[in-house]
Amino acid sequence: MHLPRIFIILQLFVLFTCSFARPFPNSNPQKLTAPLQTVVLQLKWTHQFQFAGYYAALEKGFYKQAGLDVQIVEGSSNVDPAQQVLQGKATFGIASSDLLLWKAKGFPVVSLAAIYQHSPLVILGNPKNGITNIHQLAGKSLMLEPQNAEILAYLKNEKVPVDKITLLPYLFSPEAFANGTIDATSAYLTDEPFDLKQKNIDYFVLNPRASGVDFYGDCLFTTQSVIGQNPELVKAFVNASLLGWQYALANPEELVDLIHDRYHSTHSRDHLVFEAEQSRGLIMDDVVELGYQNPGRWKRIVEIYTELGQITSPIDLASFVYNPNQPPDLTGIYLILAGSFAVMVITLVIAGRFYRLNQAIKIEMARREKTEDLLRQMEFRYRTLVENAPFPIIISSLTEAVSRYVNQQATRLFEIARESAVGIAVKDIYDNPDDRQKLIGGLKTDGSLKNWEVRLKKGTGERFWANVSATLIPFDGEDSVFVAVDDITERKEMERKLVDLARIDSLTGIFSRGYFLERGEEEMARAVRYHLPLTFCMLDVDFFKRVNDTFGHAVGDEVLIELSREMKKQTRNSDLVGRVGGEEFGIFLLNTGMDAALILADRLREEVQAMDIVSGPETVKVTISIGVAALDTEVRTMEQLMKAADQALYEAKHAGRNRVTAYQPPVPE
After folding, report:
1. Do residue 143 and residue 99 come from a single domain?
2. Whether 152 and 38 share a structural domain
3. What local confidence, expressed as pLDDT, does residue 148 receive?
4. C-alpha distances in angstroms, 173 versus 167, 181, 189, 197?
5. Residue-by-residue DSSP string for 367-413
6. Is residue 139 part of a domain?
7. Residue 617: which CATH number?
């Protein structure tokens, strides 16, 4: 083979490889060119504040700036947004968490953004018919909407037998609620409570979140085919929609006027204002990034649907949850380029060998000059590509474990000077130095590593979470480790906050029911295993409804907050304190027998009785009743323990309230 032909082939090979490493098209929606692309957004219901962000994106020109001509189609009870999108009649749609049911049936739906972090679906209990907590529904009637999985899961978690409830079709009216025809109904926090407030009709909110059932509300979605055919259009639409939601939440009054006047909403202006206020607490844009979706939370929702028998086969959540911020994965391209460079060098050496055997010294020297020039060009291209990569890159020696190359993005992320970046011990960038050996072990076994979450350390000593991908490559004549780094600290912090939201009761700051009972189960198992004493106190605020009726719910909330503080004050750090539901609370006293538990419970009762609870101009005094049960040979399970404590609490109330009663097992006849 002639050397010139070799050079031509190699140059084409390298240029072909480099062409794959060119930057991906700019994903900024403002860069999409004219003409405008027409897309259709199918709403799930009639025009109201529930969809304010999309109206804002249209009216304020965010869609147009993104190169989109968006048609917003009003929904109705006869239109399913998922069907409209799957049939190609709409490009995007709005759905609840039940979008998973379509995914479970094999339809290629993709959730793009969760706008409502919490579902507004709740149960409204009718106090007139004695419904002020979920357990009072047994033997009563409940009007239920069709998409009701979270309500059924709520009843299941609370061990309320559905077969003991008379389920009725949803036909809500304030008048039926007022005259007692309805015991309870499913409802949206953003809707039905307004009608009841307007007519001064009392109601009691029973929220599935109190039992750990926390579904997403409205989610923006499309199909995999739409994303595959035009990913930039999808990204542009999502970003413009989120800008619209930011504007709507910052300017709710303006959007209320727009929806009322231009979109002719069936709701009154006051109703739209109420809906806007309630939506803010469900969207939680001051806590969670707009549109954020937690794969772990979707997994839990799948588990709930599975427990209810509505999903019967595994779901691939990776193809269901869309990640708009996922950067193009260029790691493989850079590795191909590095390998190409090594292959080219080897090929040139072989070609040079044959050339020296067949050509004169003069021609060889001329070819060598061309070879060196080509090598210089390729090295320049290679280093330029790596140096300007959009993510941090570190190349280190496999055997000596020191850095051989650090690009500009990496020096910024790790806050180290460029002149001192080469030659540092790479184990020092890991929070746990042993993680470097774990990485090397994985590379030697599999050859590459992708999406490994690990804590790293900056030159300043600051720790941060990173997503690491790595592979083995030759570099400067020795085996080396190519590492690409993505800082995921913000994402990990957001996940931590969401976990806290699920574990902590938002009003009182103590454990929520679900997490409290989960921890209680663990401690009971430990007590049984090691024969340790454990007691459980169930307590309830006496005449709490009278406090709410006399002073209002704000004062009632303050009573629950102060009571929670006093419970934490009177118990040890090792004890568990949680809100069981409404005005009912529980305390697990670890390593504590009945006698000591009764002393603590009575001390708590006396302290609460002596409290003056101040809320604004009002000063309130309350008392509590406490039932105490201990783990013993007869009481071994959580159900038995709670039932025993609840029985003791009932006896305390029956005996006049403001007292502590210990559970006494029935005497056999």
Report:
1. no
2. no
3. 81
4. 16, 10, 15, 13
5. HHHHHHHHHHHHHHHHHHHHHT-SS-EEEEETTT-BEEEE-HHHHHH
6. yes
7. 3.30.70.270
455-496 per-position pLDDT tens digit: 999 988 999 999 999 999 887 778 899 999 999 998 888 888
**CATH number of the domain within which 93 lies:** 3.40.190.10
For residue 400, the domain's CATH number is 3.30.450.20
Asked if 405 and 450 sit in the same domain, the reply is: yes
Write the CB contacts of 460 (distance below 8 Å, at least 6 apart in sequence): 415
Q: Per the domain annotation, does 386 fall within a domain?
A: no
User: Among 545, 418, 422, which residue's Cα sits nearest to residue 475?
Assistant: 422
Please state, in angstroms and rounded to a whole number, the distance separating the CA atoms of residues 204 and 61: 42
Distances from the Cα of 71 to the Cα of 40, 41, 61, 258, 657, angstroms: 5, 6, 13, 16, 61
Residues 235 and 150 in one domain: no
* Boundary of a domain, candidates 211, 239, 261: 211
Q: Is the dihedral of CA 230, 234, 235, 239 positive or negative?
A: positive
Tokens of 599: 């002393």
Look at the block and give the residue holding tokens 């679906």: 121
Closest to 487 measured CA to CA, from 534, 449, 514, 454: 454
Give the neighbor-by-neighbor strand order of the sheet with 584-590: 576-581, 584-590, 534-541, 624-630, 660-662
Q: 563 or 479: whose pLDDT is higher?
A: 563
Question: CA–CA separation, 530 vs 507, rounded Å?
Answer: 35
- Burial environment of residue 517 by CB neighbours within 10 A (0 to 12, 13 to 18, 19 or more): buried
Q: Alpha-carbon dihedral of residues 555, 560, 563, 567, nearest 10 degrees?
A: -160
- With H, G, I as helix, E, B as strand and everything else as coil, classify residue 291: strand
* 526 shares its domain with 612: yes
CA 200 – CA 192 distance, rounded (Å): 13
The answer on 196 and 131 residing in a single domain is yes
Residue numbers of the domain that contains 519: 504-662
Instruction: Provide the number of structural domains found in the chain.
Output: 4
Asked whether residue 307 is domain-assigned, the answer is no
Contact 69, 38 (CB under 8 A): yes
Same domain, 31 and 96: yes
Residue with the bigger pLDDT between 656 and 20: it is 656
Q: What is the pLDDT of residue 389?
A: 75
Residue 25's pLDDT is 39
Distances (CA, A) of 212 to 477, 629, 640: 57, 25, 21
Give the percent of the chain with pLDDT over 90: 58
Q: What is the pLDDT of residues 259-270, one digit of tens each?
A: 999 998 889 999
Pair of tokens at residue 376 = 């210089």
d(CA 425, CA 436): 10
Q: Which residues contact 472 (CB under 8 A, 6 or more apart)?
A: 398, 443, 444, 447, 448, 479, 480, 481, 482
Which amino acid is it at 579?
Answer: R
AA identity, residue 262: R
109 and 177 share a domain? no
Identify the domain boundary among 293, 324, 342: 293
